[in-house]
Amino acid sequence: MSDKTHLEKPYKNILVSETENPIGLKTGLIQINRPEVLNALNNELMQELVNALEAFDRDIETGCMVITGNQKAFAAGADIKEMADAGSIEMLVRDQFARWDRIRKLKKPVIAAVSGFALGGGCELAMSCDMIIAAESAKFGQPEINLGVIPGAGGTQRLTKAIGKAKTMEMILTGRMYTSKEMFDAGLVTKVVDNDVYLEEALELAGEISSKPTIAVQLAKECVLKSFDSTIESGLEFERKNFYLLFSTEDKFEGMKAFVEKRKPEWKGK
Question: Which site among 112, 133, 197, 239 is 20 to 30 Å from 189 CA-CA?
Answer without folding.
Answer: 239
